[in-house]
Write a structure and sequence with these properties.
Elements: H1 18-29, H2 35-64, H3 68-93, H4 101-118, H5 123-151, H6 157-185, H7 190-211, H8 213-228, H9 255-264
Helix pairs in contact: 1-6, 2-3, 2-5, 2-6, 2-7, 3-5, 4-5, 4-7, 8-9
């Protein structure tokens, strides 16, 4: 209800084998700024979510002496956290898409997974940490999914979303395989699996940070300048949207000017 009509795009496209379609779509996504990164980032969320869901019940039984039903309640807390984190991501982003939130959320996921490993025997610590894991997961996925929706080419938006879904459910399969590998092959306890996940999240977060460093710096600059200054921007239409521009501060070596210019630019400044 109350959703405006959107004309269909790409309706004349011929049907091809879906795996080949996913491959060509991913190759096309690499040509667009940050789109390829956003697709893999969104897929990684499903990988983390599936791993948490599969690992949380063995974790509850082995480390917390809970039943499988009580372990299921722990994942319910995670799910509530994901919803809360998603809403929080929208609040922090405002009217824009903030890819800079993803590295912050990634650091939170790294920390939470490590805490689940370190405090695996303490139920009253595990409960809020599990909730926070969901919160950071929601903050992680919303900017990526929004970016895919907004910045995919109009003629290929459906293919981009579909390819992201395929990657996501491949991530679910990989999570299942990882659970089997750690528990059946290496005979690790469920709580030790959270340490492995913490390391994986750290690696992926580092990659995402490098790939979205300009967005991250813009978000940090925007947060600092919003809290320290009352900004009034004029002449913004003079900045070209799709071509390079050279912006010079009217005072030499002004860190404040650099901070303010970085905070208001969309897309973020690559160099200043």
């Amino acid at each position: 209800l109350q959703i405006e009509f959107t004309p269909p795009a790409g309706t004349q496209k011929k049907f091809t084998f879906f795996l080949y379609e996913v491959y060509t779509t991913l190759c096309s996504a690499r040509q667009h700024n940050r789109l390829y990164c956003a697709m893999w980032g969104s897929a990684f969320f499903l990988f983390i979510g599936a791993y948490m869901q599969l690992n949380i019940i063995p974790f509850a039984i082995q480390s917390l002496a809970l039943t499988d039903v009580q372990g299921g309640y722990l994942f319910t807390i995670t799910a509530i956290g994901i919803g809360t984190g998603s809403a929080l991501a929208g609040k922090l982003s405002g009217k824009h898409i903030e890819l800079g939130l993803a590295p912050i959320a990634g650091i939170g996921l790294v920390t939470c997974c490590f805490l689940l490993y370190f405090f695996s025997k303490h139920l009253f610590i595990v409960i809020p940490v599990v909730a926070l894991t969901g919160v950071f997961g929601g903050i992680w996925v919303v900017p990526f999914d929004a970016f895919i929706q907004a910045f995919s080419p109009d003629h290929a938006r459906g293919q981009m979303v579909a390819a992201t879904n395929v990657l996501g459910f491949l991530g679910v399969l990989c999570a299942s395989a990882l659970i089997y590998l750690l528990s059946e092959i290496f005979k690790l306890q469920a709580y030790q699996g959270f340490l492995i996940m913490s390391i994986l999240c750290l690696i992926i977060t580092a990659i995402i940070l490098i790939a979205t460093l300009d967005y991250f710096l813009r978000f940090i600059s925007h947060s600092i300048s919003n809290n320290c200054f009352k900004l009034s921007v004029s002449g913004y239409d003079n900045v070209p949207k799709k071509s390079p521009s050279l912006i010079l501060c009217n005072r030499p070596s002004s860190l404040v000017d650099t901070l303010l210019l970085t905070s208001i630019q969309r897309p973020p400044l690559r160099f200043l």
